[in-house]
Design brief:
single chain, alpha+beta, three-stranded antiparallel beta sheet, 8 helices, 5 strands, about 15% strand, elongated
């Protein structure tokens, strides 16, 4: 809407949209946003607008009407592309926690993980987002996330079982990744508490990592492989 010329302008607006975005040159002086809709009240003073009280047709072309426009945009916080965009914002967290899991398994199992294997795991994470976007356009974000997560968990768990030579460790990796994807799903779909959920989730994962590695002798990790190799050759 554009305020009329002359005197001060006051107006009210309401609607059944739970995520309004108040835009334009003037914000409402009062607003109430609830799950069932919103209410807002504007009060625009005449001195705040660069619109004269009267003008002719010739002068109208030079009046900046667009600079005084304001209103409400019905923002959709859970649209498909918005959710995919939000999931990409947590991409660094996903990569870091997945690589951290790989390193943790490497330390606890005593099996070396080659950089090429890390690169393949990283490539799988990239493909996850590609599959997620491709499916979300057709079946919705929820089903797309579920299908993509199940596929990537199965691939990484099977790969870990082969690389580590232990099916149980592969299942453990798969279970951890399933928890990780579930945790990220909650963060992505939570509009108001994503930071709170993320902070406590990362804290819990850090505590679990510290508990699992509390008996690890980090000074012996680098020397462990040559020692084992030498003893095996003897």
């Amino acid at each position: 809407m554009v305020p009329a010329a002359g005197a001060d302008h006051r107006g009210r607006g309401r609607g059944g949209w739970a995520s309004p975005s108040f835009a334009g040159a003037f914000l409402p002086v009062e607003r109430e946003v609830r799950a069932d809709g919103f209410r807002a009240r504007w009060s625009v003073l005449g001195v705040n607008r660069r619109i004269p009280a009267a003008w002719s047709d010739v002068e109208a072309d030079g009046i900046p009407f667009e600079t005084t426009r304001f209103g409400v945009v019905l923002h959709d916080p859970v649209g498909v592309y918005r959710l995919v965009e939000r999931s990409l914002e947590y991409g660094l967290l996903l990569v870091g926690l997945t690589f951290g899991l790989s390193f943790l398994v490497e330390v606890l199992s005593g099996r070396r993980v080659h950089p090429v294997q890390y690169a393949l795991v990283g490539a799988a994470l990239v493909v996850f987002y590609l599959v997620l976007l491709a499916l979300a356009e057709h079946v919705g974000f929820g089903l797309a996330w579920l299908a993509s997560a199940v596929a990537l968990v199965a691939i990484n768990a099977g790969y870990a079982a082969g690389a580590l030579g232990d099916r149980r460790r592969g299942l453990l990796v798969g279970a951890w990744l399933a928890i990780l994807y579930g945790f990220l799903w909650v963060m992505v779909t939570s509009e108001d508490h994503a930071l709170l959920i993320g902070a406590f989730g990362v804290l819990a994962m850090l505590a679990a990592t510290m508990a699992l590695t509390r008996r690890v002798d980090w000074y012996r990790i680098d020397a462990r492989a040559p020692t084992q190799s030498a003893s095996g050759g003897a």
